[in-house]
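fyi for ur records
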Amino acid sequence: MPVFTTLLVIVLAAVNVLGTPYYTSSLAERVRHPMHVLLRPSGLVGQSAGVLAFLAFTFLWLYPLRKKWKALAFTGPIGKWLDVHVTTAIALPLLLTIHAAWRSDGLIGLGFASMLVVCASGIVGRYLYTRIPRAKSGAELSRDDVVAERNRLVDEIAEVTGIDPQTVEVTLDVASPSDAKAGVMRVFVNLLTNDLQRWRLTHELRRRFQDLEGGREIPKAALGRSVKLANREIALSQQVRMLEATQRVFRYWHVAHKPFALTALFAVVVHVAVVVALGATWFY
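which gave:
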């Protein structure tokens, strides 16, 4: 997570914690609370959070445009855009809770609920996205590209450690499910199982590589580099075996993600239009 986003999340979390006495008060008590002027939805802090939330939500819609229009490639790779898209979405619920003063009724309540679903599903989508083999640019790799990349990684590990490439390949071999017709929940279970297996094997590789070399000690830097490369090779091996199932679930995710995003957009636009029309703001 970028440093700016981390600091923003910390500040927003602190505001929510410090405002707890106000947020837990009844509506009758709130109007007499010393924090009411600041934390009410139309207050300095409350509405400022709402403005930031609206700007952040608007920014989130730039990511689909970046994916659709190749002319925007100069703005950066899709993978980087997705990282910013997800980290921005993480801060959004905290902004919304401050703006709504922990109350959400009517149309904006529907938008708030939809936005929370969108944020949660976005995290799931990011997880699925990273489980599909991709180049640094974010473009999806073909099976031939994956095979070539895995061979390159094995050769580099062999060169770094001095271990025979075939031995390296056998050492990195890990069982992985490959049922392309598995149900959605089974696919997620398989993906999480793969992550756990890769984590366990990666943590054992330092010892395994060292044992394969007998008495010769592999330099610490070379050993660390080889483990990093091995983690990438194992991930590619698992991803290509799960590729069809992961792509299918990712398509399902797109179908489910968009309606909630559009519902949230509709509710937010109506809410902002009504507030501006009524002049229920602190800045004019």
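The chain has 13 helices and no strands. thats all i got for now
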